[in-house]
Write a structure and sequence with these properties.
The protein is mainly alpha-helical. 56% of the residues lie in helices and 4% in strands. A hairpin with a 5-residue loop joins strand 2 and strand 3.
């Protein structure tokens, strides 16, 4: 089996053009499994016969990893390595049965979305310097993120024609090219109104026809792109918040959580976020429940013994 693992890793490198990181990870995972099998068969790792590997052996190994306290995401990666290795071995005729064929990948632990407090967000927004056109655009972008909960990919795709200041709304192209209309708050609408009057000041030598249609522009004068927006959001969040994750998605999470905490119907939040089904939106109810628990523990005289 040891030589077969070496052949498989060579296959990943030459035929699959896998990254060095993937090859190293799979090598470590498969070597760990090989050593486990050697201990089960009471032999040297070089003498483990791949034909002897059964689904039971694999499950015993995964059980041991779980007992050792390995996270579900780490176990899932090891399962992926085994499935890929045994699929290769079966297709190449090195084994007659694939013991990892129906192996289930453990579901990764779901972490609650990170959010920023309304106080931190208000302070961040108010401290953006809007005396420059670039600063005015930054403020407009942050207002749109927190005021609508749209994705960063949706924001960079916005065109001037998607903005309806009179009606106070934007038209967003979501996942799967699904279009939805999202209302704008008064503050966001006022900032956008000021920004669109000065927006052409951001044009540059690289401004093309697509950039002239775009609502927001990068420093180059082209349409804003995801990486530059992420960097900008991180810069402003770092100034005002201790939240560990500083990204546009945090503003999306904050939008949904604050709406829910203030009484908004979760079905309406689903429409705002552009989720295909309600299950994707349910994660925000967990955040709200955690908040209720904290309030209960602090306020109720019999919450703690």
């Amino acid at each position: 089996m040891k030589k077969l693992i070496e052949k498989y890793l060579k296959y990943l490198q030459v035929e699959r053009n896998s990254s060095p990181h993937t090859i190293t990870s799979y090598k470590n995972d498969l070597t760990s499994f090989l050593n486990f099998c050697a201990s089960q068969f009471e032999c040297d790792p070089e003498h483990v016969d791949v034909q002897q590997i059964t689904r039971l052996i694999i499950r015993l190994w995964l059980g041991e990893l779980s007992d050792e306290g390995l996270s579900k995401s780490s176990i899932a990666r090891k399962v992926a390595a085994l499935r890929s290795f045994f699929k290769y071995s079966f297709k190449r005729g090195y084994i007659t049965k694939n013991p990892a064929h129906l192996l289930v990948v453990p579901k990764k632990d779901k972490s609650l979305p990170k959010t920023v407090t309304p106080e931190d967000l208000n302070r961040m927004l108010e401290n953006v310097d809007i005396e420059t056109t670039r600063g005015l655009q930054d403020r407009a972008i942050l207002e749109v993120f927190y005021g609508t909960g749209i994705r960063v990919s949706e924001l960079v795709g916005l065109n001037l024609t998607d903005l309806d200041l009179r009606a106070g709304q934007i038209t967003v192209q979501g996942k799967g090219n699904k279009e939805r209309i999202v209302p704008l708050g008064d503050t966001a609408r006022d900032i956008l109104k000021d920004f669109t009057k000065k927006r052409t000041e951001l044009y540059g030598s690289r401004t093309d026809s697509d950039a002239r249609r775009a609502l927001f522009l990068a420093a180059s004068g082209q349409r804003a792109y995801v990486r530059s927006i992420r960097y900008m959001v991180e810069k402003y969040l770092s100034r005002e918040s201790e939240v560990t994750q500083k990204s546009p998605h945090v503003l999306r999470h904050s939008f949904a959580t604050h709406m829910l905490n203030n009484g908004a119907d979760i079905r309406l939040i689903k429409e705002f976020l552009g989720h295909a089904n309600l299950a994707a939106t349910q994660v925000y109810t967990h955040t709200s429940v955690e908040r209720l628990k904290n309030v209960y523990e602090q306020a109720h005289p019999r919450a703690k013994s």
